[in-house]
């Protein structure tokens, strides 16, 4: 399986980079992983709704330019469905069985995803109703993908 993560925002913190490197290394046994980092647009303090919409649309256009036609797109969205780790594992397994071997996860910037990206998504997934920094969320997503493959292969992994 090919997994692409398209994420808005540059990763700066060394400890997060190290965690991403670790999970990328672990995942290399199970899939081909590509992480695409897109620059986030600067949001001025007290930005108007219109300005925020324009920023989301600009980031959305950059995201859409990286999505290939053959990708099954999962948008990380607060209005998406929530899954357990086991359900995410089954979801990924079922996609592979159906021939959807190019899975793409989208992590938006601090304002979320544009309407166009949400519309393009084949599935909307919500990890939690809580808000997380998108840089930290990238690590959390990689960990859950790794956990999903371990579950799929009936390999031990702490619960």
TrEMBL record:
Compartment(s) of residence: Cytoplasm
InterPro entries: Alpha/beta_knot_MTases, RlmH-like, tRNA_m1G_MTases_N
GO cellular component terms, A-Z: cytoplasm
Reactions mediated catalytically: pseudouridine(1915) in 23S rRNA + S-adenosyl-L-methionine = N(3)-methylpseudouridine(1915) in 23S rRNA + S-adenosyl-L-homocysteine + H(+)
EC number, UniProt record: 2.1.1.177
GO molecular function: rRNA (pseudouridine-N3-)-methyltransferase activity
CDD domains registered for this protein in UniProt: RlmH-like (cd18081)
Keywords, in A-Z order: Cytoplasm, Methyltransferase, rRNA processing, S-adenosyl-L-methionine, Transferase
Pfam assignment, any one: SPOUT_MTase
Binding positions for S-adenosyl-L-methionine per the UniProt entry: 108, 127-132
Enzyme class: transferase
SUPFAM superfamilies in alphabetical order: alpha/beta knot
Database matches in HAMAP family: 23SrRNA_methyltr_H
Function: Specifically methylates the pseudouridine at position 1915 (m3Psi1915) in 23S rRNA.
Family: Belongs to the RNA methyltransferase RlmH family.
PANTHER family registered for this protein in UniProt: METHYLTRANSFERASE, RIBOSOMAL RNA LARGE SUBUNIT METHYLTRANSFERASE H
Subunit text: Homodimer.
Protein name: Ribosomal RNA large subunit methyltransferase H
Record gene name: rlmH
């Amino acid at each position: 399986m090919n997994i692409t993560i398209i994420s808005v925002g540059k990763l700066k913190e060394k400890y997060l980079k190290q965690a991403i490197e670790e999970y990328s290394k672990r995942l290399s046994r199970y899939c081909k992983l590509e992480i695409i980092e897109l620059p986030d647009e600067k949001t001025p303090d007290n930005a108007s709704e219109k300005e925020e919409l324009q920023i989301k649309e600009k980031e959305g256009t950059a995201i859409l330019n990286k999505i290939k036609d053959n990708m099954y797109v999962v948008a990380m969205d607060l209005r998406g469905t929530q899954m357990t780790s086991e359900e995410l594992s089954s979801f990924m397994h079922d996609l592979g069985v159906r021939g959807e071997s190019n899975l793409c996860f989208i992590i938006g910037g601090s304002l979320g995803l544009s309407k166009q990206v949400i519309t393009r998504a084949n599935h909307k997934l919500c990890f939690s109703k809580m808000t997380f920094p998108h840089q930290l969320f990238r690590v959390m997503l990689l960990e859950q993908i790794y956990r999903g493959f371990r579950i799929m292969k009936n390999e031990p992994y702490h619960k």
